[in-house]
Amino acid sequence: MGRGPYSYRDDPAVPDFPDDRPLVLFDGDCALCSNSARMILKRDRAGVFRLAPTQSPLGRALLIHYGLDPDDPSTMLLIQDGVARERSDGALGIAARLPAPYRLAVSARIAPRFVRDALYDFVARRRRRIPGPTWCSLPPSGVDLADRVLG
């Protein structure tokens, strides 16, 4: 994934999007990922994050740009300050910007990345087995989607 900050701006395949705030790409066909996205929207009262499903044109283009399979995204991707973070680094980057108790998850950084990523991959491989609703455009109660969800 080693691309420089804001490298997607020079990629003609990536649509322009506002990148003044962190962007979270999530698998909109996965119940676990969709519920995580809804939780971010609900808990992020300050509107720090924007979200986009990986199935959207923007999501697909960014996954391809970063060398990830858009048809089987295996990670939630956090793009912050023009840099993409995936797997456990992305999840912990999201947690760090959310209120307590979610912010406490950053204590997991004491574990080596290979251990954190192995656990992340274990869950990611099984994520579609978890039943529940997948992404829909209905926001959690009290959340306005304007300027928060990109497509």
Give a summary of the structure in a few sentences.
With 151 residues, the protein is of the alpha+beta class. Helix content is 30%, strand content 10%. The protein has four helices and four strands.
Name some characteristics of this structure.
151 residues; alpha+beta; four-stranded mixed beta sheet; 4 strands
Bulk shape: globular
**Taking Cα atoms only, what radius of gyration do you get, to the nearest Å?**
15 Å
Low-pLDDT regions? none
Tell me roughly what share of residues is in helical segments: 25-40%
Oligomeric grouping of the chains: single chain
Mean pLDDT: 85
Task: Give the termini separation.
Answer: 22 Å
- Strands of the widest sheet, in order across it, are 2-1-3-4
Secondary-structure element series:
EHEHEEHH
Q: How many beta-strand segments?
A: 4
**How would a crystallographer describe the biggest sheet?**
4 strands, mixed
Structural class: alpha+beta
Strand content: 5-15%
How many alpha or pi helices? 4
